[in-house]
Amino acid sequence: MGKKRLGFAMTGSFCTWSSVIPQMEKLTEFYEIYPIFSPISYCSDNRFGKAADWIERVEEICGRKIWHTIEEVEPIGPKNLLDLLLIAPCTGNTLGKLANGINDTPVTMAAKSSLRNGNPLILAVSTNDALGGSAQNIGRLMNVKQVYFVPMAQDDPKNKPTSAVAFFDLIAPTLLSAASGEQIQPVWRQRL
């Protein structure tokens, strides 16, 4: 039996990319990875790195070009191109769009297309307003069939009391559980 097809979508929480990319590398042993970038992820040069450098690294890891347009991801649904879709990191902006049915980026369109086929959508949250404005969107998505969360916790309760970040090192076990229709405990009191 071949490797499962994993869509690995990345959004603009650039401060977490250095933690997310090593997880992508590890997953290549078990999954055929199809990388997907949000528009800002594909073009932003910022204090965490140049877009061209990130693109080169991800394409080298995955062995294929990044899908970064709606036209490139649209066939995911009709052709059932993926077995699972992971969004890591998943920003508050993306959470809001998913919770409200807005499909105006390659990442949100890929999510819609994947769910259309009844395939698991796994979210690895990284947002400064998880316990603020994004809380209602997280709650709404926790009640959607086939949507699973990588366990998360506050990353800095004292200085950023509404911020939460997924435990990116728990992506692999979360994917396995989601493929079996199980959710690992999604919210932890504190980071270990």
Please write out the topology.
Elements: E1 4-10, H1 17-27, E2 31-37, H2 39-43, H3 51-62, H4 70-73, E3 84-90, H5 92-99, H6 106-116, E4 121-127, H7 135-142, E5 147-149, E6 152-154, E7 164-166, H8 171-179
Parallel strand pairs: 1-2, 1-3, 3-4, 4-5
Antiparallel strand pairs: 4-7, 6-7
Helix pairs in contact: 5-7
Shape: globular
Low-confidence stretches: none
- Specify the CATH architecture: 3-Layer(aba) Sandwich
Query: Please, how many domains?
Result: 1
Report the average pLDDT across residues.
Answer: 95
Terminal Cα span: 36 Å
> Helical residue percent?
25-40%
User: Nearest-angstrom radius of gyration?
Assistant: 15 Å
CATH level-1 class: Alpha Beta
CATH fold name: Rossmann fold
β-sheet strand percentage: 15-25%
Q: Main sheet?
A: 7 strands, mixed
Q: Output the helix-strand order.
A: EHEHHHEHHEHEEEH
Task: Characterise this structure.
This protein has a single domain, classed as Rossmann fold (3-Layer(aba) Sandwich). Helices cover 35% and strands 19% of the residues. It has eight helices and seven strands, in the order E-H-E-H-H-H-E-H-H-E-H-E-E-E-H. Strands 1, 2, 3, 4, 5, 6 and 7 form a seven-stranded mixed sheet that branches. Helix 1 (17-27) links the parallel strand 1 and strand 2. The longest helix has 12 residues, at 51-62. The model has no long low-confidence stretch (mean pLDDT 95).
Describe what is shown at a glance.
By secondary structure, this protein is α/β, with parallel strands linked by helices. The chain has helices spanning 17-27, 39-43, 51-62, 70-73, 92-99, 106-116, 135-142, 171-179, and strands spanning 4-10, 31-37, 84-90, 121-127, 147-149, 152-154, 164-166.
